[in-house]
Each structure stands twice: as C-alpha cells, then as structure tokens.
Write a structure and sequence with these properties.
Helix content: 25-40%
CATH architecture of one domain: 3-Layer(aba) Sandwich
CATH class of one domain: Alpha Beta
Structural class: alpha/beta
Strand content: 25-35%
Largest sheet: 6 strands, mixed
Radius of gyration: 17 Å
Distance between the termini: 27 Å
Strand order of the largest sheet: 6-7-8-3-9-10
Length: 241
C-alpha cells in the first residue's frame, strides 16, 4: 500500500555513535502512513542502532527525526510512545515470570482511557493462544508465541507506527511465515504503519511496500519491496541466489 501522503516518519542525515565509533553515517529514509517498509542488511550494518535511535534510547549525534511533521530528534522514549511509536525489541524481552495478560497490560502503561479491555480483546482475537493461556507465566510460551506476545504488548499502546526488530529471529520457518502474515494483516486491517528491520530479506521484502538496504550504517539501495527481491545485487548478497 504505497502512500501518497506526507511521510509519517522522516529520517534525514542521521548519525549515531558508540563512543568514538560512528554506527550511522548520514542515513536518510521515510515511512508513509499505512505502509510496511523493510530495512534489510547483514549483522553489524546498523539496523538495530537505527531502531533504537527512532525509539529514543540510542543518542543521535546529528541529523533529524520527524514524526507526523514534528521534530522528535531529542524527544524522550516515553514521549515518543505517547506520540504513537512503539517498538517490538530484538529478542522479545518479555517479562517471563509475569502472566501473559500482565505483560500485555504493561504495554498500556501510559494510557488512562477506559478502552484497555477492548484492546486486550483485539490482541486476543489476533493471537487466540494468548487468551487461552492469559493467566499463565509468559515464560511458558514457545519462541513464536513469545513473539506474538511482544507484538501484542506493543499494540496495547495503540501505536500509529510499529517498529519491529528482527521478528523472525530464532523461529522455525513455519512460524516465520505465520508471524509475517500477522504483520501484513496489521497494516491491512488495523491501519498500523510498520517499519521492519530484518536479516531474513526474503520474508521482509515479500510483504513490504518499500524496502531499504543498509550497509555499514548507510543506505545502499531502496525501492519497492518486490523490485528489491528481484534485484541481482540483493539476491546475491542477502538471498543466497
């Protein structure tokens, strides 16, 4: 669903460093409303650093991040959540001793409205296994179910933009397909805009409206997802073809 509106998220000339080591070198990209945009690249390319910078937990040393036209470059993480940005972190990072439903409710910790129960039911409709086991400790879930829980927890903040960091990590192929089907459904049925970073370039670009390829902290290529899938450079570098 290619957007013709002004970008929901815009990143311009972004730089970020770990000490003296610069990880992002003047990176620019944009994400339109109701798009799925994928960022693919190898280990150490800067994918997670970018997501952490977008969430406000990784300091930036230059450039600008805009969300809905407002400059959020120096905004705190909780201010970004209030603005409508939620991240599903690499490795899920759920609270394993807590009940599944308690994990979900933590995603709504900044909300004061009366519709949290309704949103719980929406998450349960997406992930019925979570409802069946909602009183059980989250640590008893499989890897795929924990990924569903992490996505559901992020959805409880009612995000306009969902940031997904390596959602296929550690999952069996059949579960990867299931998770990516759910990601596509979120865009199509819930109007959630999705920015996805992934090593599994085939899975990510297959559902993406647009994609970017990142190499050593810089955007090396960009284009419609399906065009990148058939690009010989992408196929050789990331698809093993």
């Amino acid at each position: 669903m290619l957007s013709t509106e002004a970008p929901l998220l815009s990143v311009a000339d972004l730089t970020s460093a770990y000490g003296r080591i610069e990880a992002l070198h003047g990176l620019s990209l944009h994400v339109g409303a109701r798009e799925i945009v994928a960022l693919v690249g190898g280990n150490g390319a800067g994918k997670t650093t970018l997501l952490r910078a977008l969430s406000g937990v990784q300091p930036v040393t230059g450039g600008r991040v805009s969300f809905e036209g407002a400059d959020i470059t120096r905004a705190s993480p909780h201010a970004r959540v209030r603005a409508g940005i939620a991240q599903v972190p690499e490795g899920r990072q759920i609270f394993t001793p807590l009940a599944i439903e308690d994990n979900l409710r933590l995603g709504a910790y900044l909300r004061k409205d009366k519709e949290i129960v309704d949103d719980l039911e929406r998450v349960y409709a997406l992930f019925p296994v979570l409802k069946e086991r909602r009183r059980n400790p989250a640590g008893g879930l499989s890897g795929g179910q924990q990924q569903m829980l992490a996505i559901g927890r992020a959805l409880m903040s009612r995000p306009k933009l969902l940031l997904l960091d390596e959602p296929s990590m550690g999952l069996a192929p059949v579960l990867v397909d299931q998770v990516f089907e759910i990601i596509a459904r979120l865009r199509d049925t819930d109007d959630v805009t999705i920015f996805l970073v992934e090593q599994n370039a085939f899975a990510a670009l297959s559902i993406a409206d647009r994609g970017y390829v990142i190499e050593t902290g810089e955007i090396a290529m960009s284009g419609p997802g399906k065009e990148l899938l058939t690009d010989d450079r992408v196929r050789e570098a990331y698809l093993g073809v």
